[in-house]
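User:
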Amino acid sequence: MSTIAARTAACLVFACAACFSDGGLHATGAGITTSSSTTTDGPFLDTTTGDPTTTTTSGATTTAAPEPFCGDGNLDPGEACDDGNDDDSDACLADCREASCGDGIVHVGVEACDDGPANHPSEPTACRPGCIKPACGDGALYVGPLGAPIVLATDASAQQSDDNPRAIGVTADGTFKVAWRVNGLLDRIDVQTVAADGSLVDTPIDLADPPAQVIRDPVLAVAPVGDLALAWEINGNNNDIAVRGVVADVGHPGFNAVVNKGPLQQSPALALDDQGRLTLAFVGVVFPGLYHVHVRRFDNFDPDSPPEFTISEHEAGIPGGPTVALLPDGAFVVAWGDPGGVILYRRFAADATPGPIVTTALRTGGIALADSASPWSGLAVTPDLGVVIGGVGDDGLVDLQTFDAGDLPQQIVAVSEAPRMHAPFVDIGSDAWGNLAVAWAECGVAGEQGPDCSGVASDLRLRWFRADLTPHTAPTAVHSVMVGSPPALGLAMASDGVTGVTYVADGNVLVRIAGLACPAP
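Assistant: Predicted structure:
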């Protein structure tokens, strides 16, 4: 046998001994270890995927349970849901959370949009908190730019009240009513109806009754259903204040009443609700050197309603003209400037029971024309029964101050952008959700001295605020006067946000309207 053949035979014998040992010995490289007769075959378990391991033991096969994981279709501990897929547009997200408004993922068929934490109740382009797209009627403010002036009448003698705001009112459907006085042998009070699109409805109607030689400071209130009321001073009759109501579905005057309170009354203000509850506030003399704010309530247009009563409490001087706002249950609020200029307000229950006088941090902003105009302050109530006051703050700006339903002060927010010498007229309107429109007059330069606005430049301005008092726009210019006092300014805001302002300039009775600007669906 050759050397090569001998070596080959030896290797075969050694290999066979290793494979067929009689003691179950198994050769493992450098040594020999004891082994069982078990062999393992089949796939190895991948713990990252949960694939099972098949193990054969003494001829028997067993399968280990997989580890649970999100997406296995089973509701495991710590999972809110598990639909076995990674589709984020259905009710169960890929990370096994239930879909919800505000998670930043659109649930198809349930949510129209979802900006997550950026969902906002009034930002113009934001998804709304209910995961609905912005649309008129969702509580946000969708008012467009202020339209061009519309001429209602041309008459050199036309005037609106410069003692109180609101020569304009608006119904629930956005129809405006505008009032002004016209001088003649017997003075008139004309009222023009203006549609929300700015078109004039019919012609002006004279509602002055009884006729008088001298009529001053007509003001108007409009109920949501369309009823309206007028009040004005009758200078030829010891400055009595006349009141007239017009029922919308009848189309003719509902009543007349003359308030008789001493030798001098002035600065009437009105508010009217759908139940015919009319609130009249005015300034009346008590004795020389002392004037007070008075209120009279007319229930259901009844001229025989109880007489007026005094609501202010100062001991000397003449207060600024009052402003009235209504609450849904028939309660009401009256605001005025005390003789020192600080703005006060007072709540009244539906039966006219008074609450305490509340002192604000604002004041009236000077006068437009000496011996003619009386400064007035803005007033509105919000859907949560809070109060909003407009006036001039310590910063010299036209400001808003809010109070909660318990009359605790909340915020002060700047309306104007630069202090001026005087800001005599401030008016506030509110829509159904508490968004605000603020109109004001201002004149001169801050720090200038002057008793009124007669010899300096004047401006009328308008600005909108969302319900959280975030400015919706920068101030909008309404009208400017190069030299001279600003005209009286009236403001009305419909429940849907449509806004109108009125004023008299250059012998024209004007109205400007800002309609809705609803986002595309």
